[in-house]
Design goal:
By secondary structure, this protein is an alpha/beta fold. It is built from 7 helices and 8 strands. The chain has a single domain, classed as Dna Topoisomerase Vi A Subunit, Chain: A, domain 2.
Length: 146
């Protein structure tokens, strides 16, 4: 199903990628976002664990925090020029620190969210995405596709 708005999204494809992200965070991977509003958008879309906010401590303290707690991460900074620059630098730093960074989720989301440049903007369509989600919640923590 395609959401037809100024920001058209293939909902089915979105959820295939997003479920992988939910599984990764539920299994201990960190997801790194820029700010608090990004975290709120992720929470509306069922990512409630292991969200690390760069704005909270700054880059160097965030890297220190990640190094001591995580072996894997997904960088979900914005898709604008600044966010892309931050993602590239963060990827290089985390790789040197021995943290595996899954880039496939970011790359796939960037393609299907081509009209959405900021992660926090997922907030504006979260209700519709949830309504069309191809899964149901089981015990509040595991996801099963229908």
């Amino acid at each position: 199903m395609l959401i037809r708005t100024k920001k058209s999204i293939d909902v089915e494809h979105f959820w295939k990628i997003w479920i992988r992200l939910i599984d990764l965070t539920n299994n201990g991977s960190a997801v790194i976002v820029e700010g608090y509003r990004d975290k709120i958008a992720l929470e509306k879309l069922h990512i409630t664990r292991n969200v690390v906010i760069l704005q909270k401590y700054g880059l160097s303290k965030t890297v220190d925090y990640l190094r001591t707690r995580y072996n894997q991460a997904v960088i979900l900074t914005d898709f604008d020029k600044e966010g892309e620059y931050l993602a590239k630098n963060l990827f290089n730093i985390l790789t040197v620190e021995g943290i595996h960074v899954d880039q496939s989720i970011r790359n796939e989301l960037r393609k299907i969210l081509s009209k959405i440049r900021q992660i926090e903007n997922l907030n504006t369509i979260a209700d519709h995405l949830n309504e069309k989600a191809p899964f149901y919640l089981y015990n509040g923590s595991s996801f099963t596709q229908i």
